[in-house]
Automatic annotation (TrEMBL):
One of its GO terms (molecular function) is transmembrane transporter activity. One of its GO terms (cellular component) is ATP-binding cassette (ABC) transporter complex. Residues 33-295 form the ABC-type glycine betaine transport system substrate-binding domain. CDD domains: PBP2_ProX_like. Gene3D superfamilies: Osmoprotection protein (prox), domain 2, Periplasmic binding protein-like II. This is Osmoprotectant transport system substrate-binding protein. It comes from the Bacteria.
Length: 298
């Protein structure tokens, strides 16, 4: 992971304070490069490298800052002009931008319209979504599923009070994680353990430290570990197409930026995303190396 500069950390803190009610800061001045920022999990870091490489191939300068944090940090940083491009997921981004929206549209096209209207007023363009999609999933071991005859999330209702759930630290407050599992399924687990990574989640499942854990649907470990995702039989998760978000002033300033990002979205599939994750999670490549291999330059 590349070192964070003190200036960027300070600017991110200012953006976060602005999101919490302090006066908004003026957009950061141009640095002569298009600044990509990723969330704090590997798949998003891979995606940022894929899109940043597309921009470089178009002859434009791009820098990447990895692991900035959760949406509470990264979203205001984008809107405040501290960073220029974020690669997001359509359903989650829409819910985060419009938390009071009564009913999330069921289709990617509908969510794209809502998100575009919402972020457009904040100086952010929502570009073309990719076919690639990654939703939150909830995993158990195959042995647990067989012993307890569970295959879908609703099967956990009578068991949940006796089970330990593992997920990222922010999971209890997320509408698509524990908060949503309680609202949609009535699932109330006996205990929650914060997991530092998805790899740690799989290890905790296999060791029995947890019985249910959050894993994304594109996690490459699902193909090699004795774990399985439970069916989301009540439709908690929205469509989660990968979608680049870019500041409008940056897209206007750099000719060809939007075209390079949209061109990447036109190519990227869910199968590609699984293979990119596999390259990092199982083969040991860095996100940058995996992206270069996907583009045929590594």
């Amino acid at each position: 992971m590349r070192r964070r500069s003190a200036g960027l950390v300070g600017a991110l803190l200012a953006a976060l304070l602005a999101a919490c009610g302090a006066p908004p800061a003026a957009p950061a001045p141009s640095t002569g490069t298009i600044r990509f920022a990723s969330y704090d999990f590997p798949e998003n870091q891979i995606l940022v490298e894929v899109y940043a490489e597309a921009v470089r191939r178009a002859g434009l300068p791009a820098s990447v800052q990895h692991g900035i944090g959760t949406r509470e940090v990264v979203a205001p940083a984008l809107q405040q002009g501290v960073v220029d491009v974020v690669v997001d997921y359509l359903g989650t981004a829409t819910m985060f931008a419009r938390p009071a929206f009564p009913d999330l549209p069921a289709t990617p096209e509908g969510m794209h319209r809502v998100l575009s209207r919402t972020l457009g007023g904040r100086g952010v363009l929502v570009l073309d979504p990719a076919r690639a999609e990654d939703q939150n999933g909830f995993a158990v071991t195959t042995a647990f599923a067989a012993e307890n005859d569970v295959g879908q999330l609703s099967d956990l209702v009578p068991l949940a009070p006796f089970l330990v759930f593992g997920g990222p630290p922010e999971c209890p407050d997320r509408p698509l994680c524990l908060d949503g599992l309680e609202d949609v399924y009535g699932l109330r687990f006996g205990e929650f353990l914060a997991m530092p990574s998805r790899g740690a989640t799989v290890e905790a499942l296999l060791s029995g430290d947890i019985q249910v854990g959050l894993l994304e649907t594109t996690d490459a470990r699902l193909a090699v570990a004795p774990v399985m995702l439970l069916l989301d039989d009540r439709g908690l998760q929205p469509r989660e197409n990968v979608v680049p978000l870019v500041r409008k002033d940056v897209a206007d300033r750099w000719d060809g930026l939007a075209e390079a990002l949209n061109g990447t979205s036109a190519l990227l599939t869910t199968g590609d995303l699984v293979q990119l994750n596999r390259a990092v999670e199982l083969e040991g490549l860095t996100p940058e190396q995996a992206a270069q291999r996907w583009w045929g330059t590594g």
